[in-house]
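Dear Dr. V.,

Thank you for agreeing to look over these. As mentioned in my earlier message, I'm a first-year student in the group and I'm still getting used to reading structure tokens, so any feedback on how I've presented them would be very welcome. I ran two proteins. I've put each sequence directly above its structure. The first is here:
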Amino acid sequence: MHSANQDEASVEPTPTHLSRDEPKCDSQLETSNEFPIRSEPYPPIECAWIEDHLPSFPSWTSDSSSSMAASFARLAGNAPKRLCLRPSSLITSIPRSRSITTSVPRRHAEATSYQATRLVPTDPTFTSLANKGIPEDPEASALESEAEGTDRKIRHYTVNFGPQHPAAHGVLRLILELNGEEIVRSDPHVGLLHRGTEKLIEYKTYMQALPYFDRLDYVSMMTNEQCFSLAVEKLLNVDIPDRAKWIRTLFGEITRVLNHLMSVLSHAMDVGALTPFLWGFEEREKLMEFYERVSGARLHAAYVRPGGVSQDIPLGLLDDIYQWATQFGDRIDETEELLTDNRIWKARTQGVGVVNATDALNMSFTGVMLRGSGVPYDIRKSQPYDAYDQVEFDVPVGVNGDCYDRYLCRMEEFRQSLRIIHQCLNKMPEGPVRVEDYKISPPPRAAMKENMEALIHHFLLFTKGYSVPPGETYSAIEAPKGEMGVFLVSDGSERPYRCKIRAPGFAHLGGFDQVSRGHLLADAVAIIGTMDLVFGEVDR
């Protein structure tokens, strides 16, 4: 044990704070808490070094000092390299990365700064968008050439974007390769929401397979049902009543408004605008009530079925839809007042995610992703289905092909959908809403109470299903996100032999790598938002 005099002598004096430019002597370095800057490495840790320095630690006993010295000796002997402390080498300036274009020296570069880690592109042919057309600084080039052989360079670093990112719109996982904040390459990983929908449909009857389509794009439900119903009706070679066609068209446009509200407003929230998102959900709640009144469900309606729709529109619903449609135009104007001329919104979307018409066609873009690049392709115009050949509407197209143009296209589609909704309300015909073939659609309840044959038809329809003639067909509609297609193969039984679903979001996500290259990491959020991705349909 040490005496009290030794304890008092071992107390460290108050450190003397020196300025950076004032030289320090050896005695000052020993009494300072600052890390001493040395030009040569510290000596290796050895037993003799520890024994020499043990008296400065008064709490150690002789037994503990010998055991500690032996432990360090074993550690130093077994390690592949001797333990030593080496400060980083000093430099007078910091070599700038290739992504820095200005020739002004850094304000924070000081004589005692440590050398920063450099980023060397993986692809030698890659050129930053910020460096195009700007001559390279010769001083920075000389510094980079001198440091090429050092161990202080690394390749592009990769980050995981998602699947738990709030702007991933589901379970998206992006492997991003970055040069600083600049995206060099991206690798979307899909399948985290894969449920085997196409295979499950093969084990269900055509009636039982319908609810699976509600779970694909769970933001635009009735349009998915509409696509599958059209494919089955082609194989059955049936023509549904006119009232059923107009009801499908009416709720198809209501679904389009539902989808675009979620798409535009969540896109705005991703880049920092929260108020439009809260306003838009009030309108979505009104449309969800229309869903509930017509089908009994707010989300997974299962309303559009092969042969028509499940039931007629209840009394008073058309009047309520008209009241909503007359005031929704003002809500669109209010949203545009917040976003369209907002300089922050324009800075985050203009010139971001630019896709020309050729690339959009080559990457199989459809819907707003294609029309935003200037291609006026809309299946409702080119291959009309249901009652779209009897309504008048325009197809908005973009000019620049960036995120801002696609936003403007969706805002104009709000107004065109209102035009179609007004025409459906004014031209809604009277009549049945299902085909009167009881082998395809169920008979009314009144007939089942009076007719035994109708009761048998109802029992067989919901237990065995109906047989579809052998054949194959492809049916496509203009879903809110793009071209939604169903390739259906029948072998003559009550169950489909094969059902291939063409989801628009899958093709859009496949083009993310090409669209996002050269943009900043923050722009990836804006590009994902403009693609309007829902991973129920992407992963299926």
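The second protein is here, in the same arrangement:
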Amino acid sequence: MEIVDARARLRRPFVIVRAYLGAARHLVPLVAPAAVVFLPLALIAASALLPLLSGSAVVRNDELGIFGAEPRELLVWSAAVLVVFTVAQAVVFPATVVIAAGVQAGGQPVSARRALRMALRRLPSMLLLVVLAVPVFALVVAAGFGALLVTGSMVPAVFVFVGLALFTMPALLAVPAIVLEGRSALVAVGRGYDLVIGHSPSSTFTLACGVYVIPGAVSQALDVAMAGLHGPALMYASGLAGGVLALAGTAFQASVVTRQFLHRLALRPDPVSAEELDRILSGLPEAGPRRGVWFPLVLPGLVLPGLVYGGVATVNPFGWLETSETDVTAAWRDSFEAGIGAPQLGRGHLRALYPGPGTGMAALVYGGFRKPSAMFACADHTCRQARLRYAEAGPDQDLSVDAVGAALPDGRLVLTAWTWHRREWDSWESLGLLICDQERCIPPRDGSPLIPRHDFAGGMSLALTTRPGGGLVVATADQVDIDQGPRRYDDVISLISCADTGCSRPVTREVARVPSEGFAPGPQTLSVAVGADDRPVVARMDSRTGEIHVISCEDPACTRPHVTRPVAPQTIEPTEHSPRHAVAVAVRPDGRPVLAYQDIRDSAVKYVDCRTRDCAQHVTVTLSGQSYAPPVPVIDRAGRVLVAYQDARRPYVMLATCADGHCSRTAVSGMRNGPGDCLAMMLDRAGRPVIVWTDDNGLYFSDSEWALMVTTPLNLAP
């Protein structure tokens, strides 16, 4: 190139515009160093990540996510990738500067091989520059954060951060000073400030805009443009955008830094500066013959990351868990804003989940203060069409007691309801049933009271389930005073059997008396299930000690019950608010029960695998630490035990598949706000587990953030 023409060209104003135009005209050779270095490193990093994602990667709504991976392993991998790519960038960026120097001066671009060789010779100085930049960046961030702490306002904090960041911009010119002039790191930093200080502050703003502001604005614009994309389209678009920005961004940033360095040097009138500029331009490697071989290499480098990223989520070649997930409350908010209205469902109202008519589902929910429980019905798992039907038994219904329910084969729900009866100088309550469909909740036509008379409904625990051949089983736990020594109470466990869903002729049988430490109301401390052989199993948890008794039956009428205690009582300090605790039972096809419960000491989730029908022999597996929501066990069509539960520490929604005393755990979703109080699970008509859970930050009023989520694993491994 002609040195005189190059000097005149470099003196021209509008550095950013000319730098970007030059980079756009010669984008392929400028991107070549990044493609040569970063693509193999990205392949190696992805290969090292795959073993860590085994059982942790989830394709959610055709989008890739990572839940449940070991944080320590991911941290080590992330740190290693950060170090390797930082060293690689210390080679790629100077090599791109070498190519950009020839382009901006009007010559032909230097070959990537020669530019990389020149950058490798200056790698020690570049690494020292990186080491110097780390504490400077930390100080700038700390100063901005300190201003925020002192003033309590974002405005002065932003001013401090931006001001200090602008002060460091001339240090970017140290890169061309190192690679083009051969200076050491410290001398190169001084060279950058020498070229800028004393001149117009436009140089600082030019570097800030060309290197950070404009690329950042382009990235934000792409994010906004992709905001409406979902599924494979989002995966392909984000992968393509990320690959293009990672490779092309380096080319444009290096062009601005190089152009500004040469521009400031060309504007100096002294002969020393002119001689230095001539030495830089004449010292560039020879461009050599022009070749078109870089285009087939660079083009895959631009599009391959997006194609691989989108293809992995679409094809799922590694067999990762695929899930469908819906933010139900988001759909409600959209309909409410459109004037359609939304169901009045609170963050802690969900109680249980059942299959509804067709592809729908139905949930038992707490109605709210001074409102009866309700049936919440959805047309499908998205719940965009939802109805709330209150279980109203009449003006004398006791609204202080929550209902329990079960699903009928036709998708309706059967719920319990207490009703007050008052006579002169006397009052009592009776327990009846309500049948709820999509339109209303009404008492069964030929129904009879399950319990004709009871004095204190709030002191009795209830559980309800259906029989395989039709009919219902209601379990009750009623505390009685035995007045014997220090232990004064027993829990009387009874079963109410009904041959039909209306319970026209209920049969009540006392099946067990288990010791109790006194009345302490605890939700979900009684559970009942019926096996394929029509024999019921009951689990009862003491709300004071966490002791769990299992009552199993040798026949459907439970004339010969067996009582075992798989969980012994715990010694805990009495507090005003006892830890969250609950128990749920399910029965496998061979009649052996399984339990999932929250430990009363720390709300840890545990699973009890009963080796015998009476659970006299069992294995206990701890699934997670503290959980806010009770775990839910179900038996799928293959006879596997599935347990849905919360891991509040991470926090994730987990699904355990258990057999022979061992459980494999899979994270099916991650919580954005925090662990909520509610979690329920059912099997849909296709036999897949459907998990409904609350994502809740635990705050109230204006700071409250919560959502009702529906997650369905689509390809759960057998």
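From my reading of the second output: Residues 334-342 have pLDDT under 50 and may be disordered. The first helix runs from residue 3 to 10. Does that match how you would interpret it?

Kind regards,
E.
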